[in-house]
């Protein structure tokens, strides 16, 4: 029977039921997921039609019929990614293994056993999670000062007393002509050790050191 006929079977008193996990199945993106279900009472499912469908669309994820897998009716996005684990099929216990799990695999699935006019199913939920590495940590430092004349210069120095430029710099001026300055840099954690910011008055040939900041990895 195809996906459209899942609920079209004549309902007669069930001689078996299908049992699935009582909680969601968790899988990581790129890993494997196993959607398991089994018959109750225990009995062989070798000669049954067994299929897994997407619960919402009823599209076929995997079909087992007449003792073999039938991939001709499988959704394209699952091609080459499903495998029926049937070591315990004589006891009515199976699992569908989905490899290279994708975020779009997240959702509910139906596990359906058909035998003649009998059709029983259970719903399984697959929860997909993804994680990655933090590539780098960048820290933004800002140095600001006011009350300068003429326009001051901002100097950044690393642990070796070598200067490096500001990423951005903003000047302001009050009504009485005094300047304010705000400058910032972005550095990678652990790359520079101690960083200092100073503001310099070129006319006075001196500078005011505003901060020493230790950056450790």
TrEMBL record:
Domain of life: Eukaryota
Keywords: Disulfide bond, Immunoglobulin domain, Membrane, Transmembrane, Transmembrane helix
UniProt cross-references to Pfam families, sorted A to Z: C2-set_3, V-set
Annotated compartments: Membrane
GO cellular component: membrane
Ig-like domain segment(s): 13-125, 130-216
Annotated signal peptide: none
Name this protein carries in UniProt: Ig-like domain-containing protein
């Amino acid at each position: 029977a195809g996906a459209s006929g899942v609920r079209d079977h004549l309902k007669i008193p069930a001689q078996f039921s299908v049992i699935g996990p009582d909680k969601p199945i968790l899988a990581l993106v790129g890993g494997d997921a196993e959607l398991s279900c089994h018959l109750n009472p225990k009995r062989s499912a070798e000669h049954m039609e067994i299929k897994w469908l997407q619960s919402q669309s009823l599209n076929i994820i995997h079909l087992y019929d007449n003792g073999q897998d039938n991939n001709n009716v499988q959704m394209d996005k699952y091609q080459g990614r499903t495998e029926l684990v049937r070591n315990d099929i004589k006891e009515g216990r199976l699992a569908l293994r989905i490899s290279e799990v994708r975020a779009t695999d997240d959702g509910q699935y139906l596990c359906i056993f058909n035998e003649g006019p009998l059709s029983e199913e259970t719903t399984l939920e697959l929860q997909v999670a993804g994680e990655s590495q933090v590539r780098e940590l960048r820290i933004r430092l800002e140095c600001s000062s006011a009350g300068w004349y003429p326009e001051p210069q901002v100097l950044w120095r690393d642990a070796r007393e070598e200067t490096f430029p500001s990423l951005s710099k903003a000047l302001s001026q009050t009504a009485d002509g005094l300047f304010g300055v705000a400058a910032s840099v972005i550095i990678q954690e652990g790359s520079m050790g101690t960083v200092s910011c100073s503001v310099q008055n070129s006319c006075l040939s001196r500078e005011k050191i505003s901060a020493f900041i230790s950056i450790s990895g």
